[in-house]
Amino acid sequence: MTRHFLEITDLTAGEIDDVLRLSAAPIPSLGHPLRGLGAALIFEKPSNRTRQSMEMAVVQLGGHPVYTRGEEVGFDTRETVEDVTRIMAGYHAVLAARVFDHAVVARMAAVSDVPVVNMLSDHSHPLQALADTLTMVGEFGSLRDRTVAYVGDFNNVARSLAEVCVMLGAHVRIGCPPGYDASDDDLARIDSLGSGTVVQYSDPIVAVAGADAVHTDTWTSMGQEMEKSERMEVFGHYQVNAGLLGAAARGAIFMHCLPAYRGLEVSAEVIDGPQSRVFTQGHNRMHAARGLLAFILGADTAAGSTTDAPSAERTDPAR
Ligand code: CP
Ligand code: NVA
Fold first, then answer.
1. What whole-number distance in Å separates Cα of residue 132 and Cα of residue 69?
2. Which of 14, 94, 122, 256 is the most exposed place for a label (fewest CB within 10 A)?
3. Binding site membership of 49 for ligand 1 (Cβ less than 6 Å)
């Protein structure tokens, strides 16, 4: 069966554990499932981490990444999403795409007989959530009964993060301004995904109370640039600064998928301070991408079971 990865919920909780184990496994133990094979990486939006980490993960698994800009293939302008996909699926073992409209990756998956990976859409960012989980599990040992706060815009990053946390037994506390928050339907759906829970508040101080990890993301996502000035006003009280982080559990860690805008969603003293794990988190993008690709390509999930040793970046806050 072709395993697509469009959402965190395309994996079970047990499979997420398998992916985390593969992510932490020594690279040689994974073999070279992509030896002699290609992976198409299509980007309709800019990227630093996702492009670099996916290209290196493909190389580490023995394959050849082919970076392609969205304009080059012209989804639904030069040719249909389905035609692009069917052609590329004949060249590559994996197709990955960063798209404006989530429907594009869904349409790719509908016609592809090789795995399709969502590298960020307007709806979700599941590869980021895997790296976030790898980082928090490296820090805490497990997410079970941990409290994870997310403050800011309930966006693609927030949705995937909340999903994986509830699936793995964490209690998620969201702090968002009205109008930029999770819908009741989304909250109910996420709450039902596992043994964890999700609750939402409009007051960011209430949201972070007792949190072991405090996450945020940009207030203006790619594609929302026209709304920037309006968003600056709405989100003004949602900055993660020393005062807000002080309302979390003692020693709570700060996380951000990056790119970050110092002075807006996070103060410089927090993101550059001792509680920040953002560079470990960013480096974990590569380890998580490698683990995910190995998993969907059918790697032996016991590969990482002989060691609890994390990948180099998993717990190191110093870089
Ligand atoms: N976090 C993240 O996806 O970063 P990039 O946009 O740089 O890939
Ligand atoms: N929410 C952000 C994440 C960037 C990695 C965006 O979609 O632009």
1. 26
2. 14
3. yes
Phi, psi of 83 (to 5 degrees): -65, -45
Q: Rounded CA gap, 253 and 139, in Å? A: 9
Of ligand 2's listed atoms, the one at least distance from the Cα of 120 is: 7
Q: Is 222 in the pocket of ligand 1 (CB under 6 A)?
A: no
Q: Show the domains of the chain with their CATH numbers.
A: 31-124 (3.40.50.1370), 127-279 (3.40.50.1370)
In angstroms, the CA 264 to CA 151 distance is 12
Residues 265-283 have pLDDT tens digits of 999 999 999 999 999 999 9
Ligand nearest to the CA of 222: 2
Residue with CA nearest ligand 2 atom 7: 221
Which of 201, 110, 198 is CA-nearest to residue 159? 198
* pTM passes above 0.85: yes
CA distance 97 to 148: 28
Q: Which residues pair with 75 in a beta bridge?
A: 79
